[in-house]
Design goal:
heterodimer; A: mainly alpha; 73% helix; globular; B: alpha+beta; Rossmann fold; OB fold (Dihydrolipoamide Acetyltransferase, E2P); 6-stranded mixed sheet; 9 helices; elongated
Chain lengths: 279, 363
């Protein structure tokens, strides 16, 4: 007896085909970068298409370990990113809980003011920020790299919305269980908000890791560069005819933590990006 | 075991007065049900006793302590919520033990109390599970268990059965009634379901629009509703209300003309005033070939143990009657009905109920 398969509707087939094409379009540059990183830079000067041919080599990665400032930039990036992520999550949780659960005078007004921050692009405040940190003589410090990123209204908005969605009755039950306000926050409400915190943490981590503009302005000394600024500085000329393999090896190395993060927290990354898209 | 005393309680939400000058006394160990439709203020009243809602004015005492200024955790009450309100990330045992840990009870005592509550509620096998892994009925039992372990002076239940299916609701009703007998604690139970109120309460407080309409034992409320609202809210099918055309005193009661029919009532007529309405429960309206009322049957509901007949009188008024389970009455039949004069009520122009003299009606 012949088996029957249920045909997918045409719209679904078109959707799948579109996704495949888009995925390939996204993948090609990444595969190209990885390929270039395993090629001898001189060979690439002669023929950029050499990327499609053997031999491949690990020499770029070996050079990287010896000559590049990548280790320092990676350390700087990690310090800035991890600190920013932890602080943004902490501040957003506290502020979000306050807006969601504590009835204080002017709450709605303050919340609106915070939300208005969502409408202000980073580029609009970059000059005042630069002047401020310059006046305080804080450029080329970790504080300067970290502090501006903490004023993130998105996190406050996200956590407020999430805390509001947690049934009030659960906290009321805890009140009847004689729990203090802090204990309710710490032991009841906060654990229930872990999915939102994870989403916010990943969103902040990605944003901070990839941030380029502010570190470019604030960190002018190579030892304070973050990865993005450092990699850009390594680029010696506009079409990078020399040292291409070496540069690409740096790019791969710099991108690895993101890749690992994505593999482990795929679900939350998708949610974070979707959340960012609909905000 | 403590009683509760509410004195001149007021609750306003902005300009809206949800509860006005309400006073109520609950005896130690009593099972009281607050009964009323949605928005009548019964849950607000319960939440004020719990401390989850501040009173605008008035006093609340539990036992001999004034509590209206105390936080919820210090009032000696435990509450079971409509949606259970269990802590989703904690196990059943942790849910039950959380309140005890907060007041510094030692681990061994907490464990013993959890075990005891789990035994009473048959939750022993579920102690390590999370609420998300339990059925609705099991969650409800955990919520009750969380209340029991604290050995509170007063148990408060906020419509705890409304999320359960009909079978489970009936079973849980019995379980809560048993629990009350076993613990002997004061319990207040809020519901809009008059069957829950009738089956569990020792005392029912019927509420409407933030006011108490009547306080009484279940059968007292059923037999002698103090207002037309109470009469209409308690009882399924609801009480029949018929506009009285003419009323003539006769002996201890009166003779009423109603849509051309002549009906006897044992309600004394001395205090009656305004537009009068006759109230009669369906079970007091029976088929009788010699009955004085003629009516046409337009719906027949067969419930097994009885049959409910929805009929229409000649003047268009509706009258619900009851017949035996094996009733032969069919849709469209014209039947003769008789009303028991001792089970009639008359509601005056202000909606106040008047009933036959007590000794007569209770025969």
């Amino acid at each position: 007896m012949a088996s029957k398969t249920i045909a997918r509707p045409m719209s679904e087939q078109i959707l799948v085909a579109s996704v495949v094409i888009l995925a390939i379009a996204w993948m090609v540059p990444l595969v190209w970068i990885v390929g270039l990183s395993f090629k001898n830079s001189l060979e690439l000067v002669v023929d950029p298409n050499a990327v499609f041919r053997f031999p491949y080599t690990l020499e770029n990665y070996a050079d990287l370990m010896v000559t590049s400032n990548l280790g320092v930039w990676l350390r700087n990036t990690l310090i800035v990113t991890v600190t920013q992520t932890v602080l943004v999550v902490a501040i957003s949780c506290l502020a979000g809980y306050g807006f969601a659960r504590i009835d204080f005078p002017g709450r709605n007004l303050v919340f609106i003011l915070v939300l208005m921050g969502l409408a202000i692009p980073q580029h609009a405040v970059i000059v005042p920020l630069h002047k401020m940190f310059n006046d305080w003589q804080m450029h080329n410090t970790f504080q300067a790299l970290i502090l501006p990123g903490l004023a993130g209204p998105f996190g406050v908005f996200l956590m407020t919305a999430y805390f509001r969605a947690i049934p009030l009755e659960i906290e009321e039950a805890a009140k009847l269980d004689n729990a203090s306000r802090f204990r309710i926050f710490w032991e009841i409400t906060l654990p229930l908000a872990v999915p939102a915190m994870a989403t916010l943490a990943i969103f902040t981590f990605l944003h901070s890791w990839n941030d380029y503009l502010w570190p470019l302005i604030s960190a002018t000394r190579p030892e304070m560069y973050t990865l993005t600024v450092g990699l850009a500085a390594t680029q010696t000329n506009i079409d990078q005819s020399e040292g291409l393999g070496y540069l690409m090896a740096q790019a791969v190395f710099a991108g690895l933590p993101m890749l690992i993060l994505y593999i482990f927290f795929q679900k939350y990354v998708v949610r974070a990006v979707a959340g960012a898209a609909i905000r | 075991m403590s009683g509760i005393e509410l004195t001149s309680i007021n609750k306003a939400f902005g300009a809206y007065e949800a509860i006005a000058n309400l006073s109520l006394s609950v005896s130690p160990g009593e099972f009281v049900v607050f009964l009323g439709p949605s928005g009548c203020g019964k849950t607000t009243l319960l939440r004020m006793i719990a401390g989850l809602e501040p009173v605008s004015a008035g006093e609340i005492s539990i036992g001999d302590r004034r509590v209206e200024h105390l936080p919820p955790g210090q009032r000696g009450v435990a509450m079971v919520f409509q949606n259970y309100a269990l802590y989703p990330h904690k196990s059943v045992a942790e849910n039950m033990g959380f309140g005890l840990r907060n007041i510094g009870v030692d681990k061994a005592t907490v464990a013993a109390k959890i075990q005891e509550a789990a035994r009473i509620l048959q939750l022993e096998a579920l102690l390590d599970r999370k609420p998300g892994q339990l059925s609705g009925g099991q969650r409800q039992r955990v919520a009750i268990g969380r209340a029991i372990v604290k050995s509170p002076e007063v148990f408060l239940f906020d419509e705890p059965l409304s999320n359960l299916d009909a079978m489970l609701r009936a079973r849980t009703r019995v379980e809560i009634a048993r629990l009350h007998k076993r613990l002997g604690a004061t319990m207040i139970f809020v519901t809009h379901d008059q069957i829950e109120a009738m089956t569990m309460a020792e005392k029912i407080v019927v509420m409407s629009n933030g006011k108490i309409e009547q306080i009484g034992a279940p059968m007292e409320i059923y037999r002698r509703p103090s207002t037309r609202f109470v009469a209409s809210f308690v009882g399924v099918p609801a009480m029949n209300f018929l506009e009285i055309g003419e009323l003539r005193s006769e002996g201890d009661g009166a003779r009423i003309t109603l849509g051309g029919h002549d009906i006897r009532t044992a309600v004394p007529t001395a205090d009656l005033s305004g537009a009068l309405t006759l109230g009669v429960r369906p079970e007091a309206v029976r088929i009788n070939p010699q009955g004085s009322i003629e009516a046409k049957v337009d719906v027949v509901e067969r419930l097994g143990e009885k049959t409910v007949l929805h009929t229409q009188l000649a003047d268009g008024q509706q009258l619900i009657a009851e017949d035996v389970g094996e009733s032969r009455v069919r849709f469209g039949d014209v039947v003769r009905l008789e009303i028991d004069p001792l089970r009639t009520h008359i509601f005056d122009g202000k909606g106040v109920g008047h009933h036959p003299a007590r000794s007569q009606a209770d025969d």
